[in-house]
Amino acid sequence: MPLLIQIVEDDISQSEPLRKLLVENEYDVVVHASAQEAILWLNTHTPHLMLLDINLEEDNMGYRVMPLCVKKNILTIVMSSRKNIPFEVSSALHAGAVQFLPKPFNPYQLLMTIENLLASTLPLCRRNRKTDQLLPIYDKVYIDSERQELVDETVDPPISVVLRPNQSKILSLFSIFGATILTRSDLVNNVWDGQVSDSSFYSEISRLNNTLAQAGTAYRLINTRRSTNPGISTYEFKKE
To answer: From CA 106, how far away is CA 108, in angstroms rounded?
Structure first.
């Protein structure tokens, strides 16, 4: 059954392209142009994710939707605004949004954000205190969190790969996000807190892949989409 996304946006030039993009990627989508319409619909429905414009008919009307979202325990709310200022961002997060996105949207980046947020809030990855399963499809490839090792049980005998701290963080992100593909920004922001040079980033990825190759596992972190904007280049942990 497709996941349901609610778009609350009064500008049709914003909502219609976004609706088409999500439908093309097999999501069910409903669109409401006002806080009142959104609240009326929410009384009888619960979306998996909501994209909510802060400034609907007038400034800050989007916040009127939030109390009902909290009451209904809607966990995944992305708020947006053209006012990309610290106060707007902090207000959105304080109100209950899990993420703030400035307008105009980068369609591909927005889609990646939605996929990662849905994956991280839905029970796609089985995890426990000792192991982080890297991906839903890789039942036998996981991180041993206590020993900081990658374990590959797809081969006989199983391979254990000792990882450097950053390498372990990089691979663990796939289980934390519950995603098959992460952007470079995801990796940089969650491993280096957003502060790393291009050369250091690529050196770490290269060093990680050399470590995996030397240990004998067939899995690598592969750049699957190169972009003129390095931040949205994407990486996939997969079998070569």
So the answer is: 6
Helix or strand or coil: residue 197?
A: coil
Per cent of the chain over pLDDT 90 is: 19
Q: DSSP class of residue 61? A: G
Q: What is the DSSP string of 132-152?
A: EES-TT-TTEEEETTTTEEEE
Domain boundaries, the chain: 4-121, 131-239
Burial readout 85-100 (b: 16 or more C-beta within 10 A, e: otherwise)? eeebbebbeebbbbbb
Query: Is residue 65 within 8 Å of residue 38, measured between CB atoms?
Result: yes
Which helix (H) or strand (E) is 167 found in, with range? Answer: helix 165-177
pLDDT above 70 covers a percentage of the chain that reads 85
Pairing assessment for the beta strands 159-162 and 149-152 based on DSSP bridges: antiparallel
CB atoms closer than 10 angstroms to residue 127: 16
Q: Enter the pTM of the model.
A: 0.53
Distance (Å, whole) CA 216 – CA 210: 10
Q: Say which CATH class 131-239 falls into.
A: mainly alpha
Peptide bond into 157 cis (omega under 30): yes
Tokens, residue 124: 């796609």
Q: What is the pLDDT of residues 84-139, one digit of tens each?
A: 778 878 888 888 888 888 888 777 778 878 877 776 665 433 334 355 666 544 56
> Does the domain at residues 4-121 carry the CATH identifier 3.30.200.20?
no
- Token pair of 137, please? 């499809």
**Spans of the chain below 50 pLDDT:** 123-129, 136-137
Average pLDDT, the chain: 82
